[in-house]
Design goal:
heterotrimer, A alpha/beta, B alpha/beta, C mainly alpha, B: alpha/beta, ten-stranded mixed beta sheet, 11 helices, 45% helix
Chain lengths: 237, 272, 220
């Protein structure tokens, strides 16, 4: 996973307007390799939009997203959504598909596909139809699929929001393993406890603007703004 | 399971292709003729005999006389066999046909409800039509430029009504069969060729009321589409068909065709 | 049963051959086309969709007439000599089937695209590359579209009559045979043919239903 060529991932003066409404305003952000960044904020603060813009799914209306200074979007990134989106085929076939469209083929494809499934604990369900798996299993499958691509950055949009605590714990374990394997993590969550467990850096968004970007330790220790206090009090751990 | 469906479809497509190729390989001609001739069942009897004798397959496109002649004018047929002398002579005069050969004749019959309120039964065709018009009894006409329609209009004109009009005179714009269906459904009068009438199964209360009048004779002519106008016309095969129709064998086969024991067509080629 | 040298089953076989061929062609063109429109983002897209949906309402005899004029000796494709042949019927039926298959498939594929778009884009799948993925993913809904197309093809009378000529043994299919027998007043025979036609369509739909049920049990 060559991180040298693509980090830092930067947002410079990024504004995004969706349906006439300003979702992000003048966002400046920098993410380095092997970071675990968690984006926090109230509903409507723009977290999902920020993630999608960084990932390249949404084009900024102003400003730009830069990868090591270049606007060229690298392929070595993946995203996992709140609700996993699977194709109507087996679990293994879903992972194979992701590898195939990224130019992997033959024995290497088979190998990588089965390996990631084993790592997320889905080896036994490889031939099961993906759409009949439970929510937690599908989310792990989505992680496996992303992992198979050996991404330098993994984006996750509230990955455990629809899961029960046991499944959520499993998913967190996998996320940390993917990080161990060398990927940067950029995640949004409503769960402060999860944020504390996973993040080494926090980005706090409020009404489409970045209010704070600090280390996790500093974020939870200090009280810098009324919005932040209100946010921290309102959110359940 | 999906694979077997795909396989079946591919087989069907392949078959259709081979079929088309096979059809194209046999020598064949397209004969434009009329629905009444086809529906009488004559072709089913006659054509296999010709194919046995010559090896040429005959493909009959059965439409109204007017449409058959239009088809031939466009060059979409090789031979045309219809029953409208005036139109046929014009066809040859305009250069679309080589020569008109008389082949056979049949006759028309006037059919109508058994009860026959205007009293047309047993009369000559002209007085019968006059009675029908006077009573404004429902009459169904083909109205489709066919030989039958042309004959019907000629008879009305002779009876003194060049363009019958009114609620009682209904034009279906369709073939003899559908027209008979409508007449049967409405209990109306109509002029039909004997062949279609004899094969028609849905008579309702209709019966033959007028027949045998010499004005009801319906002569057929066959013509080769002029290769000078349409070079692709299969002139040799087409002429072979015509020659067979006017030959003693062909004429005998025509005369031998019967429905319920009744002969339908009278062969009348007299060698010109 | 006067005038049937080819036999009843020959007529049934011919009907199936031409209709299956036409459905196959219409799907081979229409399904990918529907996919491209569904994922597409080009100017005039909405106009194209409106035109496509309007084509559904074209009277089939008009299509028959147009194909006839094309294939007639006097027309541009005359020299091919395929008027009044099974191939002409396949062409007419394909033209009738194509708008139906394309319009219906597009609706299903657009729905699928709505669900899969973000994820596929995230994986690096281009719009064009997404089309075969969508087609396969939406395969069960598309199966009903294919069946609707076949139904359209196999039930056509007017256009088939015009371009085929209803020639005994060559271009007589079930529907034109029914029309002929009805016009001859031989209703029992026409009804028998109609019953066979219905049974075929029913059997195909039952088969498709079975496939969907089997997949539902497997996939949920």
């Amino acid at each position: 996973m060559a991180s040298a060529a693509i980090f830092p991932l930067e947002a410079r003066g990024v504004s995004v307007s969706l349906g006439g409404h300003a979702a992000l305003c003048d966002v400046d952000l920098a993410i380095d390799a092997r970071r675990r960044v968690v984006v926090l904020g109230a509903n409507g603060a723009g977290k999902s939009v920020l993630l999608r813009t960084l990932h390249g799914l949404i084009q900024p209306s102003a400003g730009s997203i830069l990868w090591a200074g270049s606007t060229e979007r690298p392929r070595a990134q993946a995203m996992v959504f709140q609700r996993p989106v699977m194709l109507r085929r087996s679990a293994l076939a879903n992972v194979r598909y992701a590898l195939a469209v990224n130019g992997i083929s033959g024995a290497e494809l088979e190998c990588r596909a089965r390996e990631v499934l084993a790592r997320v604990g889905l080896a036994k369900l490889a031939d099961r139809q993906a759409l009949v798996l439970s929510g937690g299993e599908q989310q792990r499958l989505a992680l496996a699929r992303a992992w198979a691509l050996e991404p330098a950055v993994l984006f996750l949009d509230e990955p455990t929001a629809s899961l029960d605590p046991a499944a959520a714990a499993e998913v967190e374990r996998v996320i940390l393993e993917i990080h161990e394997a060398g990927a940067a993590i950029v995640m949004t969550t409503h769960n402060l406890g999860q944020a504390k467990r996973i993040a080494d850096q926090i980005v706090f968004l409020h009404a489409g603007r970045v209010r704070e970007q600090t280390s996790a330790a500093d974020f939870f220790a200090k009280t810098s703004s009324p919005e932040k206090s209100r946010f921290l009090e309102a959110e359940l751990p | 399971m999906k694979h077997s469906v795909v396989f079946c479809v591919l087989v069907a497509v392949l078959l259709a292709t081979f079929d088309a190729a096979a059809q194209a390989a046999k020598p064949s001609i397209v004969v434009a003729s009329t629905t009444s001739t086809e529906q009488s069942g004559l072709f089913a009897q006659l054509l296999p005999a010709f194919t046995r004798a010559s090896g040429i397959e005959v493909r009959v496109v059965a439409v109204g006389t007017g449409q058959a002649l239009d088809l031939a004018r466009r060059g979409d047929a090789d031979v045309v066999l219809v029953h409208d002398l005036a139109a046929e002579e014009k066809f040859v005069a305009d250069g679309f046909g080589v020569k008109r050969y008389p082949v056979m004749y049949n006759d028309f019959v006037l059919v109508g409800p058994k009860a026959d309120p205007p009293g047309a039964r047993g009369l000559g065709i002209i007085p019968a039509l006059a009675k029908i018009e006077a009573a404004k009894a429902p009459f169904v006409s083909r109205g489709d430029k066919s030989g039958t329609h042309a004959a019907e209009r000629r008879l009305w004109t002779e009876a003194g009504f060049a363009a019958p009009k009114g609620d009682w005179y209904r034009e279906t714009g369709s073939g003899m069969g559908p027209t008979l269906n409508v007449a049967s459904g409405m209990n109306a009068y109509t002029l039909s060729d004997r062949g279609t009438w004899l094969s028609f199964r849905n008579r309702g209360e209709l019966v033959v009321l007028v027949e045998g009048d010499e004005r009801l004779i319906n002569p057929y002519g066959v013509m080769l589409v002029n290769p000078a106008k349409h070079p692709h016309v299969k002139a040799a095969a087409g002429q072979a068909f015509i020659d067979w129709l006017i030959s003693p064998q062909g004429q005998a086969a025509i005369g031998a065709y019967t429905i319920d024991g009744e002969p339908l067509f009278v062969p009348n080629y007299r060698g010109e | 049963m006067g005038g049937w040298p080819q036999g009843l089953w020959g007529i049934v076989a011919l009907s199936l051959e031409v209709s299956l061929a036409a459905t196959f062609l219409a799907c081979a063109i229409g399904l990918p086309l529907a996919g491209l429109i569904a994922v597409g983002d080009f100017s005039g897209r909405r106009t194209l969709i409106v035109v496509l949906n309007s084509l559904l309402g074209v009277p089939s005899v008009v299509v028959g007439l147009c194909v006839y004029l094309l294939l007639s000796r006097a027309g541009p494709l005359g020299p091919l000599g395929i008027l009044f042949s099974a191939s002409a019927i396949v062409i007419a039926q394909t033209l009738l089937c194509l708008p139906l298959v394309t319009a219906l498939a597009r609706e299903f594929l657009e729905e699928s695209w709505g669900v899969l778009r973000e994820q596929l884009t995230s994986l690096g799948v281009s719009r064009a590359r997404a089309v075969p993925t969508l087609l396969w993913d939406t395969r069960f809904a598309l199966l009903t579209v294919v069946l609707a197309g076949f139904g359209r093809a196999v039930s056509e009378v007017g256009a088939v009559m015009i371009v085929g000529g209803n020639i005994d043994g060559v271009t007589r299919v079930m529907t034109t045979a029914i029309a002929l027998e009805t016009s001859k007043g031989d209703l029992p025979l026409a009804l028998w043919l109609g019953a066979i036609l219905l049974s075929i369509v029913l059997a195909l739909n039952a088969g498709a239903y079975g496939i969907r049920e089997w997949s539902r049990r497997r996939n949920g």
